[in-house]
Write a structure and sequence with these properties.
Elements (H helix, E strand, L loop, with lengths): L2 H14 L7 H14 L13 H10 L9 H17 L5 H17 L27 H16 L5 H30 L5 E6 L6 E7 L2 E8 L2 E10 L7 H6 L1 H9 L4 E4 L3 E5 L4 E2 L2 E2 L2 E5 L2
Antiparallel strand pairs: 1-2, 2-3, 3-4, 5-6, 6-9, 7-8
Helix pairs in contact: 1-2, 1-7, 2-4, 2-5, 3-9, 4-5, 6-7
């Protein structure tokens, strides 16, 4: 998910906690833990500062820092910071950190970018594709709760944001259940299927591959699939020149569930069909032919 959504999850988590009758420094520590634990896995964006990092960004982002292995490591680091900064020692802050980091990692598994949940033991990206990278329903639920808490001051904010959290969980469950149903139906027609959620709730892009043919359709659980594009992948093409001249292409090839190979008179390249819009994919790598 995007940075804003993870931040909203963190603030909602903070508001759901009972904070009455606790010292002010513990309240500040709770806010720190809630926000930082929901953001810290994305610290991997620093890989962009080196040339190797820019080449490997596709594979390294959402890789090791989003793995199961790193969940307790991040939680322990946050707990140590809390002890140093706020002088509190309650292990509750460690447990909350565990929850926040795990929430970040698992939610990221449900959009098309996926996470390296089992790094470093497996480089496979775990992705279900049932949530868009930016889900405005989550934003709307948070905004509704935020406004309601100021309009209805007689209702405890903790209770209101618990309703918000429940609404988010319901939306996630309904959205994911529908996506998995759509994907299961598509698996009857194709050899391989991937899913990419639309920004419109309960709407999905199905990417199906059979042989060297890739079809893109828009689908919901209650309507007939609508064809969007039919693509041909030049599977027989030798990609060695591409990988040698453009190292990012090899990274993309390993990162994507499957790619479409382009081999025409002007260029050789690959692209991820999950991100195909208006005649091209914004996740692609090419070299020009001479």
């Amino acid at each position: 998910m995007d940075t804003i959504t993870h931040g909203l999850f963190g603030y909602t988590m903070y508001r759901c906690l009972k904070k009455e009758d606790i010292p002010a420094k513990e309240g500040k520590a709770l806010l720190f833990v809630s926000l930082v634990s929901n953001q810290i896995p994305d610290i991997d964006v620093v890989v962009r500062v080196t040339e190797t990092g820019r080449i490997m960004e596709q594979m390294w982002h959402r890789g090791l820092t989003h793995s199961l292995l790193f969940i307790p490591i991040w939680a322990l680091l946050i707990y140590v910071l809390v002890r140093l900064m706020f002088k509190v020692t309650n292990w509750r802050f460690f447990h909350l950190s565990l929850f926040g980091v795990a929430l970040h990692d698992f939610v990221d598994c449900f959009n098309a970018w996926g996470t390296g949940l089992f790094e470093p033991f497996s480089s496979a990206r775990i992705t279900f594709g049932t949530l868009p990278i930016v889900d405005f329903v989550f934003w709307g639920l948070f905004l509704a709760g935020f406004l309601f808490s100021y309009m209805k001051k007689h209702i405890p904010k903790q209770r209101i944001f618990q309703w918000v959290a429940l609404g988010m969980l319901l939306h996630f469950s309904i959205q994911t259940a529908q996506g998995l149903i759509v994907e299961q139906r598509a698996e009857q027609r194709y050899d391989r299927v991937e899913l990419a959620a639309s920004f419109v709730p309960w709407h999905f892009r199905v990417i199906g591959k059979t042989g060297n043919h890739v079809e893109l359709t828009d689908a919901t659980v209650w309507s007939t699939s609508r064809p969007v594009a039919a693509l041909k992948s030049h599977e027989e093409t030798d990609l060695s020149p591409l990988f040698n001249q453009n190292p990012k292409a090899k990274v993309l090839y390993e990162w994507s569930p499957f790619v479409v190979v382009v081999n025409d008179s002007k260029r050789l390249g690959i692209f991820d069909p999950r991100f195909y819009r208006d005649g091209e994919s914004f996740v692609s790598e090419y070299i020009e032919k001479r």
